[in-house]
Amino acid sequence: MEITPSVHAAALWVGLHLILLLVLSVLVVRQRRRHQVELGHGDIPELDRAIRAFGNATEYVPAGLVAIAILAMASAPPLVVHALGLTLLVGRVFHAVGLSRSGAASLPRALGVTITWLAYILGAVALIFYAIP
Question: Helix 45-73 vs helix 5-35: angle between axes, to the nearest 10 degrees?
């Protein structure tokens, strides 16, 4: 596969999303150590929220990264790849911050899920557009 500007853009966003997942994972480990919980959440709300923030990201990020990679392989313009990568990352960060602070509904959580769904829609439309020869 030729290394195009779109592939470089995809590499950037995949790398940034991997860093986000690593940070969320480290936050879970920190809470586990702090509360001496090896498995589960131990009925500790902070640990439960950290686990869910990481879990939720692992549920949404992979499909977004697949879309980013396929768009790059389909030679979508780098701007499309960057738009999708940025939208997904912003959505996931907002959601993680909102969920980490409180288990209740919050503006950051609502924005996070809305922006994430926007990224999914953007990715789906772009993939369908670039699938048509």
Answer: 170
Q: How far is CA 125 from CA 14, 71, 117, 122, 133, in A?
A: 20, 11, 12, 5, 15
Q: Rounded to 5 degrees, what are φ and ψ at 41?
A: -115, -5
Maximum distance among all alpha carbons in the chain? 56
pLDDT tens string 12-38:
999 999 999 999 999 999 988 888 777
- Among 132, 119, 1, 4, which Cα is nearest to 66's? 119
Q: Where are the domains of the chain?
A: 5-131
Q: pTM, whole model, 2 decimals?
A: 0.91
SS3 of 89-125: HHHHHHHHHHHHHCCCCCHHHHHHHHHHHHHHHHHHH
CB 100, CB 50: distance < 8 Å: yes
CB 93 within 8 A of CB 115: no
For residue 103, the number of C-alpha atoms closer than 13 Å in the C-beta half-sphere is 10
Domain 5-131 is in which class? mainly alpha
